[in-house]
Specification:
The complex is a heterodimer. By secondary structure, chain A is α/β, with parallel strands linked by helices. Chain A is built from seven helices and eleven strands. By secondary structure, chain B is an alpha+beta fold. Chain B folds into three domains: about 110 residues, Butyryl-Coa Dehydrogenase, subunit A, domain 1; about 90 residues, Butyryl-CoA Dehydrogenase, subunit A, domain 2; about 140 residues, Butyryl-CoA Dehydrogenase, subunit A, domain 3. Chain B has eleven helices and twelve strands. In chain B, a hairpin with a 3-residue loop joins strand 6 and strand 7. In chain B, helix 1 packs parallel to helix 4 and helix 4 runs antiparallel to helix 8. The two termini of chain B are about 25 Å apart. In chain B, about 50% of the residues are buried. Classes of the chains: A alpha/beta, B alpha+beta. At the A-B interface, helix 5 of A face helix 1 and helix 3 of B.
Chain lengths: ~260, ~375
């Protein structure tokens, strides 16, 4: 089985993020790391594709030919990676990114495509279903467990009340929620081996896409202004004068929690 | 010439940082410290299993023997990170001392069996019976009235599965043994660091456990002492870095006279001096790792330089961190003590700074 995992390489959340003052987009010029939420997708894919002849391929779109984040996924055990890096992609919106990823994923001819529910730097959460739509594939979101049964997958789909059991033909796009599996640590052997694993570098032209469809040129959105988020209020301190419990209950009722 | 670490070496170091941030945060050290003996063993084994899964014990062992075939330069960053986390488990003793010593003694059956246990896991090693003095390694191992050998000051003895123990006889010279923990009597003694136990180990002298003796054992033990000095230096560099970071963070947070105390020159200079001493000890530590990896004739000298400089740097870092923290630094609730106590123990283990300075003196005075 051939599983593709889409991996986003993001600026290290430990370092303070910065916006490009010209475009109001996130500055991605420094070293990038694999988005933490993708650990779960890679782990899930490695577990599903653990048989002989099975293979996990990572697909990522990042500026500057950046592979640092991909190396983490390769060190965990993925076999190879496809990286799309092109100056024409700067300023892409979610749909533009989906077009690029869909074209790149198609080259790997996968049986299953695994993605995180959303990235931790953008949080649009729309990309996986856009990729599925562009590729004409079914999509199942919020998977907390995936099993393969012949040419179909069975997914436990997280809901507010519990979970749905969804059966879906392959190939399909599945998004996994954080915490569903325990991501493995890349072993030292994996880290040393990651360097020699193949990373295919592609441009927009290699994918047969028109540069006007992607990047800021093809983006249907423009960030016109950015403002500081409102500082969080200091909250209300309630002094317990014998009525503390009632006041907590009243507060929770006001929030409609109870 | 490029002195920088390779991308892979940086990756290994970062991988250990990530793993230990999850498996050995200060909260875990507190839990470990407060746990009952059986629970401590369970916690130690669980953490060791993660390190074994990473491949840490076999870093220096060749690939045909089941290891990673890497060298001391790859290992030095791993040790630094273990020091940064004040890891309680015997990573240096197992990966840095036992593994290369046993691999060098192959194909001797006893060494092969112990190395197999190390690679296949989850064997952890404690090393004892070697004191580094200014006249070279000597053994504190003595013979008890009951006929057993008695080795004092063995670190990490409680959870070790195999002991690498040395003894010295005036007539026949050195012997090095790999003794299963099941054959030993471990008598716990008070330890400086609450996260690292210490014991007197009573063990039977037997031909079945003998790894090397005489001249061969002497060469092995000399190299083992050099590795211990260099490995301890790397741990101390990590510990010093952590203590300076803790103190600097505290200095930015703690307010006095309406300003963070870190804004006062008297505090800044303390921290800067500690940092300067650390950054001077760091290249000496890397040099020792390179000299060991490439079997340089200067390896002993370089290991001693590293241990002397790293011990002094870590000692200053501990004192500075304690002073910058003020009274809170002395308390149990402050995290600093976990790192200070390991530092105090490690600066004295495998020869203190003074001993190593005296060891390099003959070479230095020839210059």
């Amino acid at each position: 089985m051939n599983v593709v995992v889409c991996v986003k390489q993001i600026p290290d959340p430990v370092a303070p993020g910065a916006l490009d003052p010209g475009t109001n987009t996130l500055n991605r010029s420094g070293k990038l790391i694999m988005d933490d939420s993708d650990n779960y997708g890679v782990e899930m894919a490695l577990q599903l594709a653990g048989g002989e002849g099975d293979e996990v391929t990572l697909v990522s779109m990042a500026p500057g030919g950046e592979t640092s984040g991909l190396r983490t996924g390769l060190a965990m055990g993925a076999a190879k990676a496809i990286l799309i890096s092109d100056e024409a992609l700067a300023g892409s919106d979610a749909l533009g990114t989906a077009k690029v990823l869909a074209a790149a994923i198609a080259r790997a001819n996968p049986d299953l495509i695994v993605m995180a529910t959303e990235s931790t730097d953008g949080y649009t959460g729309t990309l996986p279903v856009q990729v599925a739509e562009l590729m004409g594939l079914p999509s199942v979101t919020f998977a907390k467990a995936i099993s393969i049964e012949g040419s179909t997958i069975k997914v436990e789909r997280q809901t507010e009340a519990g979970f749905d059991e969804v059966v879906c033909p392959m190939p399909a796009v599945v998004t996994v929620t954080a915490g569903v599996v325990e991501p493995r640590y890349p072993s030292f052997k994996g880290i040393m081996a990651a360097k020699s694993k193949p990373v295919e570098n592609l441009t927009v032209a290699d994918l047969g896409l028109d540069a006007s469809q992607v990047g800021s040129a093809g983006s249907g959105q423009e960030i016109t202004d950015v403002s500081e988020s409102e500082a969080r209020g200091s909250g209300e301190i309630v002094v317990d004068e014998g009525d503390g419990a009632q006041r907590v209950v009243a507060f929770l009722e006001q929030l409609k929690v109870i | 010439m490029d002195f920088a670490f390779s991308d892979e070496q940086d990756e290994l170091r970062q991988a250990v940082r990530r793993v230990l941030a999850a498996e050995c945060p200060v909260a875990a050290l507190r839990t470990f410290d407060a746990a009952a003996p059986e629970q401590r063993t369970t916690l130690a084994r669980a953490r060791w299993a993660v390190l074994a899964e990473l491949g840490a014990p076999g870093i220096l062992v060749s690939e045909p023997e089941g290891g990673l075939g890497l060298g001391d330069v790859d290992l030095v960053g791993v040790f630094e990170e273990a020091g940064w986390a004040a890891l309680p488990e015997p990573l240096m003793e197992t990966a840095g001392l036992a593994a290369p010593t046993l691999a060098a003694l192959l194909p001797a059956p006893m060494a092969a069996a112990a190395l197999h246990a190390l690679i296949e896991g989850p064997a952890t090693f404690a090393v004892g019976g070697i004191d580094v003095t200014e006249s070279g390694p000597t053994s504190p191992t003595t013979v008890s009235a009951d006929g057993l050998l008695c080795t004092p000051r063995v670190l990490g003895a409680r959870d070790a599965t195999i002991f690498l123990l040395a003894c010295q006889d005036p007539d026949s010279g050195w012997q090095l043994h790999a003794v299963p923990a099941t054959s030993c009597v471990v008598e716990a003694t008070p330890a400086l660091s609450s996260t690292r136990d210490m014991a007197v180990v009573h063990w039977p002298l037997s031909a079945d456990t003998l790894l090397a003796y005489g001249v061969a054992a002497e060469a092995v033990i000399t190299l083992l002492a050099d590795r211990a000095a260099a490995g301890s230096a790397a741990f101390l560099i990590g510990l010093a870095d952590r203590m300076i970071t803790l103190a600097a963070d505290y200095a930015k947070e703690r307010q006095q006279f309406g300003r963070p105390i870190g804004s006062f020159q008297a505090v800044k200079h303390l921290l800067a001096n500690a940092r300067v001493k650390l950054e001077f000890a760091r290249p000496a530590t890397y040099r020792a790792a390179w000299s060991l990896a490439t079997a340089q004739p200067s390896a002993s000298h370089d290991a001693s330089m590293a241990k002397a400089m790293a011990s002094d740097a870590a000692d200053l870092a501990a004192r500075t961190a304690l002073q910058v923290h003020g009274a809170i630094g002395y308390t149990w609730e402050c995290n600093l003590h976990f790192f200070m106590k390991q530092t105090w123990a490690l600066t004295r283990a495998w020869g203190d700074a003074g001993t190593h300075r005296r060891l390099v003196l003959p070479q230095a005075s020839r210059l």
